[in-house]
Design brief:
Length: about 350
């Protein structure tokens, strides 16, 4: 009987050693320790033994049982650990793995991009960025800009009226007056203002009833025409390249005196003459001038004490020149083929 028990132990431990998963271990537990297992059977047969043999064999049987149980438990723990680790490994999500469906990424609109570039240049020179309403009063759009009612210069800008007194602003210049009013006579005033403007124009390759301007205004004591020139030259160099030159031509705006139109040397040919500059070597990019005394006075700035310069440029025109876009309508038709070209710039 002792031999049978020893053989049983050896056999059980060998099978346990070979077991690889928790199901196999469970089967072995039933096989060796279960009610119908060989150990139970041997213990049942102990009745036939003598009184001296019984405790000895009983002891051996218990030892065998304990040995099998011990190995079973240890093995059980080991296998369970392994299985848990494998399960976790299978459930890991690699969050850095690229998705299977590619989501098209948006790109910055060329107009937004040019506005941002111009803002960066001027904020770098200490300007702050202002905003004003697109639905504007007749007062700020015209009167405060030195164009009283019936002033002929109002015709320069065909206007969409909302009511007698309300209109879609035809330029960003009303923000000059709004800013001066808000600052209540304090200096320095040093702002730019990007925004949409509206004019009753027929849409074509170079005209749009809605377009974008950036206004600039500087007011302080002792501001001179040379400050305007220096500022715009610096801007032109940063915007179009370090070799850019500027040219100032006399012009007329009711809200500046003197007024000037500013050309930059053609960024396509460097000033030699080409199709873009129509052979002249120069390209007009903005209107400007010294702030008219009436504009200052109306907002409470004494023109005997303070002076300033202002400028206004069309953003579409600059973007068209910079990126070689030949039709202003491309900016508004949301053609993905145009927009996609700006994703890699
Ligand atoms: N407001 C003018 C325009 O719309 C541009 C301009 C702004 C001119 C400031 C001079 C000074 O054309």
């Amino acid at each position: 009987m002792r031999d049978r028990l020893e053989a049983l132990k050896v056999e059980a431990l060998r099978e346990l050693e070979a077991a690889g998963n928790s199901q196999e271990l469970l089967d072995l537990r039933v096989k060796y320790l279960g009610k119908k297992g060989p150990l139970t059977e041997i213990l049942r047969g102990m009745g036939a033994l003598s009184a001296e043999e019984r405790p000895i064999i009983g002891q051996v049987a218990n030892d065998v049982r304990q040995a099998i149980e011990q190995v079973l438990d240890a093995k059980q723990e080991e296998v369970q650990k392994q299985e848990t680790a494998e399960k976790l490994k299978g459930e890991t999500i690699d969050v850095s793995l690229p998705g299977r469906q590619s989501v098209p990424a948006g790109t910055e609109h060329p107009l937004s991009r040019v506005i941002r570039e111009i803002e960066d240049i001027f904020t770098g020179m200490g300007y702050t960025v202002e905003e004003g309403p697109e639905v504007e009063t007749d007062y700020y759009n015209f009167e405060a800009m030195n164009m009283p009612k019936n002033h002929s210069a109002r015709d320069m800008q065909d206007t969409f009226y909302v009511t007698e007194e309300l209109l879609m602003r035809t330029h960003t210049s009303p923000v000059q007056a709004r800013t001066l009013k808000r600052l209540e006579g304090h200096v320095p005033v040093k702002i730019i203002c990007p925004g949409k403007v509206y004019r009753r124009d027929e849409d074509d390759a170079t005209h749009s009833h809605q377009f974008t301007q950036i206004e600039g205004l500087v007011v302080d004591k002792g501001i001179r025409m040379s400050d305007l020139k220096g500022t715009l030259l610096q801007f032109a160099k940063e915007m179009f390249g370090p070799n850019t030159r500027i040219r100032i031509r006399p012009s007329f705006f009711p809200f500046t005196e003197p007024s000037a139109e500013v050309d930059v040397s053609c960024m396509m040919c460097g000033g030699v003459g080409c199709r873009t500059c129509k052979g002249s070597g120069w390209i007009e990019i903005l209107g400007s001038g010294m702030v008219h005394p009436n504009v200052l006075r109306m907002q409470g700035y004494d023109p005997e004490v303070y002076s300033g310069f202002a400028f206004g440029m069309g953003v579409e025109r600059i973007a068209m020149l910079k990126y070689g876009i030949d039709d202003i309508r491309h900016f508004y038709t949301n053609d993905m083929r145009l927009l996609k070209q700006f994703s890699k710039l």
